[in-house]
Design a protein that fits this description.
Blueprint (H helix, E strand, L loop, with lengths): L1 H13 L1 H30 L10 E8 L4 E4 L3 H10 L3 E16 L2 E11 L3 H5 L5 E2 L14 E5 H8 L9 E4 L2 E9 L11 E4 L14 E6 L5 H18 L1 H4 L3 E6 H41 L1 H9 L4 H36 L15 H26 L4 H5 L10 H36 L10 E7 L8 H16 L4 E7 L10 E6 L10 E8 L3 H4 L4 E4 L13 E5 H7 L10 E4 L9 E7 L14 E5 L7 E8 L7 H11 L5 E6 H7 L2 H35 L1 H9 L4 H33 L12 H27 L3 H5 L3
Parallel strand pairs: 4-9, 6-8, 15-20, 17-19
Antiparallel strand pairs: 1-2, 1-10, 1-11, 3-4, 3-7, 3-10, 5-8, 6-9, 7-8, 12-21, 12-22, 13-21, 14-15, 14-18, 16-19, 17-20, 18-19
Helix pairs in contact: 1-10, 2-8, 2-10, 2-11, 3-6, 8-11, 8-13, 8-19, 10-11, 13-19, 13-21, 13-22, 14-17, 19-22, 21-22
């Protein structure tokens, strides 16, 4: 074997250009495969950094009758599950939150954190590096306020002072005592820098689905058994609390399914796509080795004549193939790292702390396996062909025909046809993805995303405990911002479109009976009077809120077009009709509909229209709300002056999530954009490889048929005839590849149908355009060898070989 490897190295170095082309070709194929495998590993395969993660599951609430699947949970229901279940050693509830961290010696800072129930860290198997975790007594309403810090926050803000335990810090205007510090790299559930007990702020309202839950299964307990256990508790709660719990049940999934489940199908599709790229690369290299084996026919025949067995010759040739594959894999590491950087740049920065995209040991092991498999895959056919030469012909000095038989020609032609077909499949997928993305960009989101600045803020402390106090602050802030140079309109809202946050509530329509627990849901927006002007939402019917209306006793609402059509169909007029929040039994409960605005894409551009209604912010002034500011110019340029206006009212008030509406809009489509450019990149690589493969085959054919071409020209054939002959060969192979690829693409595009938006997966125009592109590339790949063939000197050609 060592002798084979040494000889293989010497042989490959004698033909550096052939070796380099083969190595680079395989590097592209193996590199993109490693990229997608790394993504699969990060999302679906890598074990979670918790103790026995396979026993940790996510618990969700569902109400299929009302269209709620994989929904967040209510804290009150969680307490019942935790106390009554027989399937879990521990259960924990948690929710993300933002905190204003204030200090007398530093600027106020907005910090991402989480509220967690006691025992969460113990469930995950994590211990603090300093201090302790929360006790059960600290996770109760009215308990003293305590907090745990991440090591990053501890080091950056508190200079890694080990005496931090027992000290107090100011969060959201309230004093918290630090009880511990969690280790470096731990940011559960996602980018959290500090944690507070959940029960201090959790509501007992069973209709408030605001949190997440997980549990650690007891040894030997299956997910199915645990789900049955919690479902029986949910059934009891449905009987006890029908108004809030009717129709609600429980579902349990693994951590990997919860985090990566939505990306499972796209990942498998892209693994298939890069598999096609690798097959094209292997076909390309196989064609190169077939051509090279032909030129080595005499050498191999001599080896066989001297007694070398066929197996010995095959082993020697496979050693060369594996060396090429390993070199391609080594270069593929560089390709994978480049592609992974692009993937990371195209994904949201708010990823779970353990989700790392890298070429790690498992990826390297996967690449090694690919190298060995591909080395055999593309090397076996050339080795089998080369190891059975016609000895008599091969040993003749200048003998023709060695290695140029019809079977070898058919194999090389078949490989090129396969390359063209696979390239068409990938390019059709890329074209569909790109067109889908463009269709998304043309979707009307229902608001104006040009020159709109947004930012979020949290009103912390006892100063803002009441709704009137919060409303007064927002009124003062809107007035101050509206007076800034460059501001056209200033407004506030509890949630702005495509920001990733939303609030919903059940509602009833006056005069329509609704069964208990069967309320219809709508997204609720608490906004100021000028909000519709600020975000470019014209009122289609009726009117908007007046400047004074929010501050008087009026109870009014504006609804969206979809809600109007669903509840007042067939020309019914909702203006003047009344709606109310579900569960509100007060005498002054009804809201009069005064206007209708267009549907707005609140969560995702691809989401179907949902019921939405808007109320004056003075009636529902939240602690956390957003500014939406229409500007005269570039929104980002106004951010410093708006920050200054906020600080002028409250020096301890940081603002965060500063972005333009255009940035929010583009960010909302990150996955479709990523899918589009990935497929385009893979399609482009496939196109280049197919062109190289076709060029190599035609160029080789010209060399092999030089004598024939000379004879033809000596007998009167013109240059145009020779060009036509060579081009015809290339175009026939391309045509066969296009037909086979089109048939395959019709099947494959059905698989990616779920990733498309507003595009027919079998769009004939796309198929024709891609086929035309491949045909043009085939002509370009064939024309150079064709022109070279037309310049053959008949006298030289007749002496060829």
């Amino acid at each position: 074997m060592l002798s084979d490897l040494r000889f293989a190295f010497r042989t490959l170095l004698k033909n550096p250009m052939v070796t380099i082309v083969a190595v680079v070709t395989l590097a592209l194929g193996i590199g993109v495969n490693a990229t997608m495998f790394s993504c699969v590993e990060a999302l679906l395969l890598r074990p979670f950094p918790y103790q026995d993660p396979e026993r940790i599951v996510v618990v969700r609430e569902e109400n299929p009758g009302q269209g709620f699947t994989a929904n967040s949970i209510t804290y009150a229901n969680f307490v019942d599950w935790r106390d009554a279940n027989r399937s879990f050693t521990r259960m924990a509830a948690f929710g993300g939150n933002s905190f204003n961290l204030s200090a007398s010696d530093a600027e106020p800072e907005q910090v991402s954190g989480a509220q967690i129930s006691a025992g969460t860290f113990e469930l995950l198997g994590k211990t603090p590096v300093v201090g302790r975790t929360f006790t059960e007594d600290e996770d109760r309403p009215g308990a003293p306020r305590v907090v745990m810090l991440s090591e990053v926050l501890w080091r950056n803000r508190f200079n890694a002072d080990r005496g931090i335990v027992g000290r107090t810090i100011l969060l959201n205007g309230d004093t918290y005592s630090v009880v511990g510090v969690m280790p470096l790299g731990f940011e559960f559930p996602s980018e959290a820098k500090l944690w507070t007990p959940l029960a201090m702020s959790a509501t007992g309202n069973r209709g408030n689905h605001s949190f997440s839950a997980m549990g650690r299964l007891k040894s030997g307990v299956s997910i199915e058994r645990a789900q049955s256990d919690l479902a029986s508790i949910a059934k009891r709660l449905e009987t006890q609390y029908p108004e809030t719990n009717k129709g609600w049940t429980v579902s349990i999934v693994t951590l990997h399914e919860e985090v990566g489940g939505q990306y499972r199908a796209p990942l498998y599709i892209f693994m298939g796509a890069v598999g096609f790229v690798l097959l094209i690369a292997c076909a390309n290299v196989a064609n190169i080795l077939l051509a090279r084996a032909t030129t080595r026919g005499r050498e191999i025949a001599i080896r066989a004549a001297l007694g070398a067995s066929r197996g010995r010759i095959i082993r020697q040739l496979l050693a060369e193939s594996v060396i090429i594959a390993l070199a391609g894999g080594a270069l593929g590491v560089v390709v994978a790292k480049v592609f992974l950087k692009l993937v990371v740049a195209g994904t949201p920065p708010t990823r779970p702390f353990w989700m790392i995209f890298a070429v790690d040991n498992l990826t390297l092991l996967y690449m090694l396996g690919l190298c060995l498999v591909t080395g055999v895959l593309f090397g076996l056919a050339p080795a089998l062909q080369a190891s059975s030469p016609m000895l008599h012909e091969a040993l003749k000095e200048g003998g023709r025909g060695a290695g140029t038989g019809a079977s070898r020609q058919r194999l090389r032609s078949g490989l090129v046809i396969a390359e063209v077909g696979l390239s068409l499949v990938l390019l059709v997928g890329a074209a569909l993805m790109v067109q889908s993305f463009f269709r998304l960009q043309n979707v009307d989101p229902g608001f104006d995303r040009v020159n709109v600045l947004t930012m979020r803020l949290v009103l912390s402390g006892k100063t803002y405990d009441s709704v009137p106090a919060r409303a007064a602050f927002y009124r003062q802030l809107v007035t101050a911002v509206a007076e800034l140079p460059g501001v056209k309109v200033a407004s506030v809202a509890n949630n702005i479109p495509l920001s990733g946050s939303s609030n919903s509530s059940g509602f009833v329509v006056e005069g329509r009976a609704v069964e208990v627990g069967q309320y219809r849901n709508a997204a609720v927006r608490s906004v100021s009077a000028d909000y519709f002007k600020a975000v470019g939402m014209p009122v289609r019917r009726g009117r908007s809120f007046t400047a004074q209306e929010p501050w008087d006793s009026s109870r009014v609402a504006v609804i969206n077009a979809s809600m109007a059509e669903r509840f007042w169909p067939s020309g019914g007029d909702p203006i003047g009709k009344r709606i109310a929040f579900a569960g509100d039994t007060t005498a002054n409960r009804w809201l009069t509909v005064i206007g209708i605005v267009d549907d707005v894409k609140m969560r995702r551009v691809t989401a179907p229209p949902e019921n939405q209604f808007y109320v004056p912010y003075t009636k529902m002034a939240w602690r956390t709300m957003s500014l939406a500011i229409k500007t005269n110019g570039e929104p980002a340029s106004l951010a410093p002056s708006v920050r200054a206006a906020v600080r002028a009212i409250d020096p301890n008030m940081p603002v965060f999530n500063v972005s333009s509406m255009q940035e929010l809009y583009e960010f909302s489509m990150w996955d479709r954009r990523l899918y589009g450019w990935l497929f385009t990149a893979f399609g482009a690589i496939a196109l280049v490889l197919a062109a190289v493969g076709l060029y190599s085959l035609i160029a080789y054919m010209v060399v092999q048929r030089t004598r024939e071409i000379g004879v033809r020209m000596a007998l009167g054939a013109k240059r145009a005839d020779v060009v036509k002959l060579v081009l015809g060969r290339g175009m026939r192979l391309t045509a066969f590849g296009l037909v086979a690829g089109a048939a395959a693409a019709l099947g494959v595009t059905r698989v990616i149908k779920g990733l498309l938006f507003g595009v027919n997966a079998a769009d004939p125009l796309i198929f024709l355009a891609v086929a035309a592109l491949l045909a043009c590339v085939a002509v370009l790949a064939s024309v150079v060898p064709a022109l070279r063939a037309s310049r053959v000197d008949p006298l030289v050609a007749l002496r060829h070989e």
